[in-house]
Specification:
Length: about 325
């Protein structure tokens, strides 16, 4: 299947997704190729794909990686449930900073015990009938996570919260986030949505199904190799959550303009403005807090993070 993208004289983009490639348009394309772009389905998401696949030559220091994605009944891991878990297991080279293979991919449904909201079914196409009586196999997940792999998600804050709520034994994994852990803007992208990033690479896929989303993430990190290097760097970096406790309301706009976000006090934490900084920039952040309000650095709370503790729901 192919998708045609038509670029109008006004700079707008019109994307057409026919049921089959419009062969009758080939003469028009040949006459004005600059007015067309062609997308192809991500190769590893095609139904006839046979795994394992070597993406890059082995270096010799390969480590396991697992890409995860969950489809859920909602956004809150404390009350909503997983309805599908997708996993892709592969390998990467820490020294070459590249994915070397995709070994296997799977997904499993789980019955949430409640009706799936209509909006979720409209997004994912997963129905109550699909998940009825289904249960994710804990032993299967444990097997996929053997060898202390690097666990990657394209929004790890979301996926880790749901996975640890359902599988508490997974709370020591090493996590990396291809959404927030890569400076996509520095690579020339205007947004971070997975579909958009792959569209810019010339690929499309049918999203919002867990296994396919995992394969799409793997392909993005493979074909945009610089992104995988940045992902590994962010995973290795030590960071600190800075909670600006005691900040008066008068400085909220100053904090907000610096990138602080508001925490509403759930998970037993105090209401406050917070941000995440690298360990090396913590001193500069403390100086900023002291200038912003009296004893700001002394009143603030600091929580060190590594790849094993980052993206936890209580962070």
């Amino acid at each position: 299947m192919r998708i045609l993208i038509f670029c109008t004289p006004y700079g707008d983009t019109i994307m057409c997704s026919p049921s089959s490639f419009p062969l009758e348009a080939i003469p028009d394309i040949q006459a004005a190729p600059e007015d067309y772009r062609l997308l192809q389905r991500i190769p590893i998401t095609r139904p006839n794909t046979i795994l394992p696949i070597e993406l890059n030559p082995s270096v010799g220091d390969e480590r396991p990686l697992v890409i995860v994605d969950v489809e859920t009944t909602g956004l809150d891991p404390s009350s909503d449930k997983i309805i599908e878990l997708g996993l892709v297991r592969g390998t990467f080279s820490p020294s070459a900073e590249r994915i070397t293979s995709i070994l296997e991919s799977h997904s499993q449904f789980e019955d949430p015990g409640i009706p799936i909201p209509e909006v979720i079914t409209s997004i994912t196409s997963i129905t109550d009938q699909d998940v009825a009586g289904q249960h994710i196999d804990d032993a299967w997940l444990g097997m996929m996570l053997q060898g202390d792999p690097l666990v990657i998600a394209h929004n790890a804050q979301f996926d880790r919260g749901f996975i640890e709520a359902r599988f508490p034994a997974c709370d020591k994994q090493v996590w990396a986030c291809s959404l927030s852990g890569v400076d996509w803007k520095s690579l020339g992208y205007e947004a971070r949505k997975l579909e958009y990033l792959l569209l810019k690479q010339g690929y499309f896929y049918q999203g919002h199904r867990a296994e396919v989303d995992c394969l799409a993430t793997a392909w993005l990190l493979y074909c945009q190799s610089e992104s995988f290097s940045l992902l590994l760097a962010s995973a290795r970096q030590k960071t600190v959550i800075v909670r600006a406790l005691g900040a008066p309301i008068e400085v909220k706009d100053i904090l907000k303009s610096r990138g602080y976000r508001w925490h509403n006090g759930n998970n037993g934490r105090s209401k406050c403005w917070w941000t995440i900084v690298t360990e090396s920039s913590l001193q500069a952040e403390q100086e900023f807090l002291n200038k912003t309000y009296h004893n700001g650095a002394q009143l603030a709370h600091y929580q060190a993070q590594t790849a094993r503790t980052r993206f936890k729901p209580d962070s």
